[in-house]
Amino acid sequence: MKLRVEGPLIGQSRACEPILRALPNWFGLEASAQAYITQTDLLPTFIAITDGSTVGFLTLKQHSGTAAEIVVMGVLPHYHRRGVGRALVERAEDYLRRTGTSFLQVKTLSERHPDPNYARTRAFYKAVGFVELEEFTEIWDTDSPCLQMIKYLL
Ligand SMILES: CC(C)(COP(=O)(O)OP(=O)(O)OC[C@H]1O[C@@H](n2cnc3c(N)ncnc32)[C@H](O)[C@@H]1OP(=O)(O)O)[C@@H](O)C(=O)NCCC(=O)NCCS
């Protein structure tokens, strides 16, 4: 598969919304899907393109000069486990290193929640080098415990 990653770009909701809509097991809550769609317009976003269409994206938020966060990312189901997610993370990390960012975090559902889909998400983040930092019940709600993961960008 010939894959190209572009970014960082803003104004990417048109490319990213179909991907979010194709992942209802992760982004099925309309309010949060809408919030993510807005973020892909406002925040720096990387898009993965193959066969002339966008098959994955990753959106970053810069928290400080040295710290950033993956606020959302997704890959069309048909393209899972084909290296698209890893390519997006690697490209975002290259960009962050060049701009002096050393710490990259991501928040996801903790393993205290039984959702098997998010177990796969955590496996992905671990595979690309994130480690578990802290769990929070105050950030989302007590039924959705939040796991903060972090990676030091060497
Ligand atoms: C998480 C996600 C972005 C990963 O993208 P992807 O393109 O499928 O991931 P990659 O193919 O680059 O996988 C890289 C490595 O992560 C690990 N990994 C990925 N998916 C996995 C899964 N379902 N189970 C276990 N490990 C997994 C593997 O080690 C994999 O390497 P390998 O295939 O050589 O074994 C994608 O599955 C997705 O869109 N999930 C739904 C939305 C989501 O979870 N978004 C993140 C929360 S905002």
What secondary-structure arrangement, pairings included, does this model have?
Elements: E1 4-9, H1 13-21, H2 24-27, H3 30-42, E2 45-50, E3 53-62, E4 67-75, H4 84-98, E5 103-109, H5 116-127, E6 131-141, E7 144-152
Parallel strand pairs: 4-5
Antiparallel strand pairs: 1-2, 2-3, 3-4, 5-7, 6-7
Helix pairs in contact: 1-3
The structure holds coenzyme A.
Instruction: Give the overall pLDDT as a whole number.
Output: 97
Sheet with most strands? 7 strands, mixed
Spatial order of the strands forming the largest sheet: 1-2-3-4-5-7-6
CATH C-level label = Alpha Beta
Give the second-level CATH assignment, the architecture.
3-Layer(aba) Sandwich
Number of helices: 5
What is the 3D shape? globular
Rg calc: 15 Å
Distance between the termini: 29 Å
Return the CATH topology: Aminopeptidase
Structurally, the number of domains stands at 1
The molecules bound to the chains, other than polymers, are: coenzyme A
**Helix/sheet category:** alpha+beta
| Model regions low in confidence, pLDDT < 50 over at least 5 residues | none
SSE pattern: EHHHEEEHEHEE
